[in-house]
Write a sequence for this structure.
């Protein structure tokens, strides 16, 4: 009984993860690792230094204003 309950919880968690990744919920997900890597390429990933032009090119400025 206990093992069956654990299997059901595990299967439910996996199913929810697959749905979140590939289902209708995936449209709301962002790739934060990719965003961070792009900010590294522009030299603005850590701290508040860097050029304002690079920050605007990253697209982060527009996202902040919308939210």
């Amino acid at each position: 009984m206990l093992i069956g309950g654990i299997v059901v919880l595990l299967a439910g968690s996996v199913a929810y993860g697959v749905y979140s990744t590939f289902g209708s919920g995936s449209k709301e997900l962002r790739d934060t690792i990719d965003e961070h890597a792009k900010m590294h390429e522009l030299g603005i990933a850590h701290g508040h230094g860097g050029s304002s032009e690079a920050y605007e090119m990253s697209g982060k400025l527009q996202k902040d204003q919308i939210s």
Remarks:
- DSSP finds four helices and no strands in the chain.
- The mean pLDDT is 77.
- The chain has two domains: 1-30, 31-67.
